[in-house]
Amino acid sequence: MQEIKLTLKNLQVDANNNSKSSMGDKYETGRAMVHLEQENLSKRYYDLELQYKVLLGLTLSKRETVHLGSLVKTESSTYYLSVGLGEIRVDSEVIFAVAPTSPIGQSMIGKKVGDVFTFNQNHFTIRSIE
Fold first, then answer.
1. Given pLDDT bands bounded at 50, 70 and 90, which one contains residue 27?
2. How many helices and strands, by DSSP H and E, does the chain display?
3. Would you call 51 helix, strand, or coil by DSSP?
4. What is the DSSP letter of 39?
5. CA distances from 49 to 1, 43, 55, 83 (A)
6. Which residues lie across from 129 on neighbouring strands?
7. d(CA 86, CA 98)
8. 34 within 8 A of 27, measured Cβ to Cβ
């Protein structure tokens, strides 16, 4: 998020420092590309901000069923049902941070220890829910 903020600031400074030259269309095209990049970065920042708010709101409470905030261990993988960050490493353990709205997240929600869920035609048995 900090990198995006800095890039947005730099883009704005560049846009403000550029004065219209005799280049005409080339100048307008450059400004349009900078504006498009600013829009894309702003959207990315907004998405990250939403994910950050979800993470801040998570409570680690042990329940019998998989829910938002659960750490789900199967026979082959560990999943953290939170936001879609993908693979993260904690010490030497690989954990997949997945959103509850993702296909794999949806297949786990509400399951209990011993239940099986299917993702990409693979079957996983839930060994523990923390």
1. low
2. 3, 6
3. helix
4. H
5. 8, 10, 10, 11
6. 72
7. 6
8. no
